[in-house]
Amino acid sequence: MRIVKFYNMEGTLRVKIETLEDLWTLQRVIFPNDLARSKSLRRFKASDSDVGELKEVIITLKVERTELDKNASRLRIMGKIVEGKPEQYIRLNSYHTLNVAPMDMLDVIKQSWPSYLIDVIKNAVNDTKKPRLGIIVMDDEKALPAYLLGYGVEFRNEIYSHLSKRMTQKDFQEQQRKYYEAIVKEIKGMDVDRIILAGPGFTKDDVKAYIESKQEKIEKNLTYAPASNPERSGIYEIIRSPEVESMLHNEHIRNEFAVMEEFLKGLSSGTSRYGIDNVRAALDGFMLNEIIVNDSVLGDPGVQKLLADAESSRIKIIIFNSQDEVGTQLSSFKDVACLS
């Protein structure tokens, strides 16, 4: 994502969308009653009997809801038209959907932009400048690839070895070769700069030896690390592991894990609280240093008021991805918590 202009006095942020992750980020910060402006296509009919033709227009909507279509790489912003150009092709107060995608420009207009939302945008901008990371956890039965993206972890389809102890040695070796080939093909196809290969046992080492023996040309940095299993929990284990700390120390999700661990430790000592009422009481009593909140509740008026008051008191606000492991944990604590 690229910030084109930010008119703080007017509350207008103009961005150039570059990736699917940017669309996800924008969905996190666009709320009902915000205004959204972008180019769009609108069918214009000269008469009721006319089939009409599509005209390119610039439309401003009063947002009612948004939908992210990952498969189509589209963010649908739905609402009523409050402004548009050319005016002859626009019908004010009619419903319309802006379909924004990578390479589009979008204006998001709010009465005011709180700092924590600006930080969400800035983090997205910084994420586009960083090398992307892939992780594959594997054992002798299967391999699970995943991407570590700006908005969290995206898991890919599992690769199965189909190996069996009932196979003859020749068939076993042939099937094992096909399994390694499938992993190498996945590595080559991942749109990343660096990949971590991890897992229990010797499979990752065997894949490494296979790559070296075949002199496979892989234009990516490969790192090998241990992991206890080839499941999703193995992916999260890698993200938190000291073996890759230097590689991931700036990744949001790694920082989120650290904050969540600190919060959970504070529950027993009474330095952590959760739920909007308890966090509000801690804020009013000057008893907190940080607030953690899931992105899924950022549009809630009560949460917005709490965060606005916290921001005015210069309290640090950390936004979690509600769809990731730490966000799922936080949802069991009513989506809002604080640390003293």
Structure description:
This protein has about 350 residues and is of the alpha+beta class. The chain has three domains: about 1-125, Roll (SH3 type barrels), CATH 2.30.30.870; about 135-250, eRF1 domain 2 (Nucleotidyltransferase, domain 5), CATH 3.30.420.60; about 255-340, 2-Layer Sandwich (60s Ribosomal Protein L30, Chain: A). The chain is built from ten helices and 17 strands. The strands form three sheets. The protein has a seven-stranded antiparallel sheet with strand order 1-2-7-3-4-5-6. Strands 8, 9, 10, 11, 12 and 13 form a six-stranded mixed sheet that branches. β12 (about 195-200), α4 (about 205-215) and β13 form a beta-alpha-beta unit. The protein is flat. The two termini are about 35 Å apart.
Secondary-structure map with pairings?
Blueprint: E1 2-7, E2 12-16, H1 20-29, E3 35-44, E4 53-69, E5 74-85, E6 95-100, E7 105-109, H2 115-127, E8 133-138, E9 142-149, E10 152-155, E11 159-160, H3 169-189, E12 194-199, H4 203-214, E13 221-226, H5 232-240, H6 245-248, H7 252-269, E14 272-274, H8 276-284, E15 290-294, H9 301-312, E16 316-320, H10 325-331, E17 336-339
Parallel strand pairs: 8-12, 12-13, 15-16
Antiparallel strand pairs: 1-2, 2-7, 3-4, 3-7, 4-5, 5-6, 8-9, 9-10, 9-11, 14-17, 15-17
Helix pairs in contact: 1-2, 8-9
